[in-house]
Amino acid sequence: MTSTPAPPATATERPPVPAPPRPTHAVRLGPRSLAALVLVSAVGVVAFGWPFLAPPASQLSAHAEDAPWLFAGLLVLLVAVVAATISESGLGPKAVAMLGVLAATGAALRPIGAGTAGIEPMFFLLVLSGRVLGPGFGFVLGSVTMFASALLTGGVGPWMPFQMLAMGWFAMGAGLLPGRSRLRGRAELLLLGGYGFVAAFAYGTVMNLAGWPFMGTMASDIAFDPHASVPANLARFLAYCLATSMGWDLGRAVCTVVLTLALGPAVLRALRRATRRAAFETAVTFDAPGA
Question: In terms of DSSP H, where are the helices of 23-66?
Answer without folding.
Answer: 31-53, 59-62
